[in-house]
Amino acid sequence: IIASIVLAVCALAGSWLMLLAIPRPSDEDPFVILQYTIYFGIQRIGPWTSLFILPAVGVVCFLLQGILSYMLYDKDRFWSYLFVIGSAIASIVVFLASLFLLTINV
Q1: Strand partners, 44
Q2: pLDDT digits 0-9 by tens, 73-87
Q3: Please, what is the Cα angle at 56 between 105 and 15, to 5 degrees?
Q4: Is 10 exposed, middle or buried (0-12, 13-18, 19+ CB in 10 A)?
Q5: Which whole-number Å values give the CA distances from 37 to 33, 34, 41, 72, 81, in the listed order?
Q6: Which residues, at least 6 apart from 66, have a Cβ–Cβ distance to it below 8 Å?
Q7: pLDDT tens-digit profile of 23-67?
Q8: DSSP string spanning 35-89?
Q9: CA distance 39 to 86
Q10: How far apart are CA 77 and CA 92, in angstroms?
């Protein structure tokens, strides 16, 4: 369980650091790519600050699942463990999505 929590925290911290590594766009082209698909190409662009919505949602999910896990620990440990493992998986997905955003914007 502790390994799952450490993995989730490291993945979320890595997401924030990766997105901070993206250089800020210039004033003449202030937008970054926010969504890209292999079929249609670039689908959504937006301001640079919109990149941080993804890791912010990841942190909120991590905190909510942590609170639920803590509340359920005494009643049913299975669900508590499931929430912690789900939080780690969700954090890894956020990390991979942030990595993809980094690659398409740099």
Answers
A1: 35
A2: 888 889 889 989 999
A3: 50
A4: middle
A5: 11, 11, 5, 39, 34
A6: 5, 83, 84, 87
A7: 777 777 788 888 888 898 888 888 888 888 999 999 999 999 989
A8: EEETTTEEEEEEEGGGGGHHHHHHHHHHHHHHHHHHHHTTT-HHHHHHHHHHHHH
A9: 30
A10: 23
